[in-house]
TrEMBL record:
Residues 18-142 form the SnoaL-like domain. This is Unannotated protein. CDD domains: NTF2_like. It holds the Pfam family SnoaL_4.
Length: 158
């Protein structure tokens, strides 16, 4: 009896590489949120290639290169006292073994630095991830905002 060729004829090594790559890419998506929410510029900066781009049309603008991208965190830290990014629905598609696209939805809960009021922000991230010299990083991220709520007061912690 002939057994079917597993996974479209790809080798075990190729399939394992894809699994490991998916895990590393998911860690980049989580690291973006962690870097911003924990106010960790080293973590945030380590996610990007030197020539990366972060595009936020209708938002904070477009940022080219690691130096400008690091400025995003400074702007967010200045505007918001606290942020909580909740990212879900991550879809990863490989163009080749060293390049993948990603899409993830995000709900951010942000507390204003000016008045302490809370705002909800819903967006989708469209990413390009690349593996260079054996390391996956973000090559490009475009943020498409769906809405920003009116600010409101949350009751104090119980």
């Amino acid at each position: 009896m002939n057994s079917p060729t597993p996974a479209g004829g790809r080798s075990v090594e190729a399939r394992l590489d894809e699994i490991e790559s998916r895990t590393e890419i998911a860690s980049l998506v989580a690291g973006f949120c962690e870097g911003l929410d924990r106010r960790d510029p080293e973590r945030f900066g380590a996610l990007w290639y030197e020539d990366a781009e972060f595009l936020a049309p209708g938002g904070r603008g477009n940022f080219y290169g690691l130096e400008q991208i690091r400025g995003v965190q400074v702007a967010i830290d200045t505007s918001w006292a606290r942020t909580f990014h909740l990212t879900t629905n991550l879809v990863i598609k490989f163009e080749n073994p060293d390049r993948a696209t990603g899409r993830a939805d995000c709900l951010a809960i942000a507390q204003s630095a000016a008045d302490g009021r809370t705002t909800y922000i819903e967006a989708t991230y469209f990413d390009i991830f690349e593996r260079r010299d054996g390391e996956w990083k973000i090559a490009s991220r475009t943020t498409e905002r769906w809405f920003i709520s009116a600010s409101f007061d949350l009751p104090p912690n119980a």
